[in-house]
Each structure stands twice: as structure tokens, then as C-alpha cells.
Amino acid sequence: MVLKITLVITLILLISLAAFPGAAAYPGRRSIPQAPQHEWLPTAPGGQIIDPNTLMESAFPPARPSVNNLNSACLYGNGRPRYPAYCFPPSGYAYAQRAGKAINRIESWLGQCCYGGLTTGNGQTLCCAKQAWETALSYFCIEEYSTMTLVHECCEKKGEERWNCFETRAPNPSYQPLCGYIAPMIPPDMNFNWDPKTC
Asked: Is residue 76 located within the same domain as residue 110?
């Protein structure tokens, strides 16, 4: 009789484990189904989904080009993040998309200033890079004001005050690359024309 009861209990346990594989690791609890992964959301190592707005906090705004960071800005362009359209969901995250576009533009235009044959010497390259930075952020602010949402606080400022605002909020002031990262090729969505007369 005892043997029969033992066999029945064992059989019930085996059926339970087959139905709920997580029950062995968490006695008394059913296994929790995993949330579906979305291809358009970037993930951290381990598969954790990164919110695009959070991602932008670590990348936007880019630093103002200066004598101190120009060398890194030119050398490490392929090692800094880009934000192609597939990084974002099909709807929502409009601010992150605008910020991502601004970064893509600046990185593309920095490449033109550094290696596109537009400039001669560090002085002209720096002038070109600053103009590219200001132009990209000006477009960003225009796009911010074209929405019905609150605009970035720096966009509410004018002239040098606006540029100082963006500069102080840059999370990567020295234009350092990400270890092991290689940026995808993203064609610029608009042209940049450097005006050397501004130097």
C-alpha cells in the first residue's frame, strides 16, 4: 500500500514538472513566461531591453568640438554610437529619434571636416567642426519646436547661451569611443556646407 502511494506521488510530481519546468527551481511557483523580444529595441549584454530615451541620456547632446577634444572627435568617429532608424520602435520615442538624428548628422559632418578635404590645418578643422555641431543642434531645435511637446531646455535659449547649455550637458565631453563598437554606415539625411568665412 505504501509503495502504491509513493508511486502515485512520484507520478504526480513528474507530471507537474513536465507541465511547469520552472517549478523545480522555484518550488510552489509556476514558471513566468518571458516577455517577447523586440528587434527594434536595443539590448544590453544579457538581453536586457534598453529604453531608447535612457539610451539617449548617455549619448546626447554631443560635446562641443574644442582644441582639447578635436583629435578624439576625428580619430574615433567609427567607434561612437550611431542611431539608424531600426534602433527605434515603429511608433513613439519621437524625442529619442530626433536626438539620434542629430548625433548621426554631427558624426557624419565631423567626418567631412576631418577627412573630407574641406579644411587645411587644425584651426580650420576645428572651425568646421564647431559649425557642424552648431548646425546639427540648430536643426534639432527646429525639429523640437515642430512638435506639440515640450522642447529641450537648451533649445529655449538663444545664441551662445544655447551652445553653453548643450556643452555643459554633454555626457561624453572628450569624444571617447565605445570599446569594441564599430559604427554602421548611415548616409547623412541632409547636406552640410562649411563656410570658412565664419572662422
From this structure: yes
